[in-house]
Design goal:
Layout lengths: L8 E7 L4 E10 L2 E11 L1 H4 L7 H23 L8 E7 L3 H17 L4 E5 H7 L12 E6 L4 E8 L2 E7 L5 H11 L6 H9 L24 H14 L4 H34 L4 E5 L6 H13 L3 E3 L11 H12 L18 H6 L13
Parallel strand pairs: 1-4, 4-5, 6-9, 9-10
Antiparallel strand pairs: 1-2, 2-3, 6-7, 7-8
The structure holds adenosine-5'-triphosphate and magnesium ion.
Amino acid sequence: MSVPMDAPLTVLGIESSCDETAAAVVRLDSAGPRVLSDVVLGQAAQHAPYKGVVPEIAARAHVEGVDAVIGAAMRDAGLGYADLDAVAATAGPGLIGGVMVGLLAGKAIALAHDKPLLAVNHLEAHALSPRLAEGGAQFPYLLLLASGGHCQFIAVLGVGDYRRLGSTIDDALGEAFDKVAKLLDLGFPGGPLVEQAAKSGDPKRFALPRPLAGRDGCDFSFAGLKTACAREIERLGAPSAQDRSDLCASFQAAVLDILEDRTERAMRLFDPLWGARGRLVAAGGVAANQAIRGLLENLAERNGYDFVAPPMRWCTDNAAMVALAGAERLRLGMVDGLDAPARPRWPLDEAAARLRPSHRPGRKGAKA
Ligand SMILES: Nc1ncnc2c1ncn2[C@@H]1O[C@H](COP(=O)(O)OP(=O)(O)OP(=O)(O)O)[C@@H](O)[C@H]1O
Ligand SMILES: [Mg+2]
């Protein structure tokens, strides 16, 4: 049963798939989504000594934080549970211990207050997150989803209708950023630190590879680039601050070249099927990178596309995108039972997963 298009829907979203415990309330009506509250409790300090996310520490921190985070989101929104139309929680893909914590909390609230449950795919939440941006992103659009666990081009045709055009055949882009930061001892999480260091570096100093650039299709590969960085660091021995900045700048320059080549090829696949004047949309943590946003904006303009990306705080993990995905699914009557499973792996486009078993769809892998 679907809900009338213009009926306002108020949904609590819960996110706990990696190292952020988050809750948010979103109201969706005919004017679009409005974020009524948005609370994120990060765990970076707990994982920093290990220079990566430790699943057991993450799961425990979610258990300790989830009730307070949900309480804060409800308070900030000025609502009680009775005011909600539904509860949405990330059900995967992700670190299974953490996913179970948020999903169980969502199920408990749904059961206790007799509300429908939406078991949301975290990748779908990222994919729809640009619709939280000013003006929103209208379907269909070409999505570059670049995060800690994924790097994919997806044709987003509507809620629940996703076609994967290309994917990384090895590492995710965020994983590569994190690995370079770890090798250079920059700190954790690595992406923003590499971006910062690159600003004062020479992007031409190190000749790094651009894997798959120039090849057909729009798959990615970052393992070779990561290894090339590791070799340069080995050669340097004890890198100086300038060496570090130069390597970050050279790494980011290689990433920009790869993204330029791959994105133009993805547009050539997208155009004939879903319209010549398209929308290019970026989501996932790596979409917070200003140099990458700038490149994509230029590319879009050059190719007759509009460019949309969510505000930075909705690029990395958050619950506003989970609440929005839940509200969009609720409107279409796509609700889930209280027996919905927590899924460590969950590709957005199941057909593509079957077609291309060598790829790692829906995987939240071991972090750098
Ligand atoms: N400014 C930045 N430049 C490059 N990378 C960044 C930047 N900010 C964040 N990242 C990267 O984004 C990733 C985190 O994004 P996100 O929270 O979406 O990923 P995730 O939830 O861990 O993975 P997934 O969504 O695939 O399951 C990290 O790898 C981080 O280094
Ligand atoms: Mg994410």
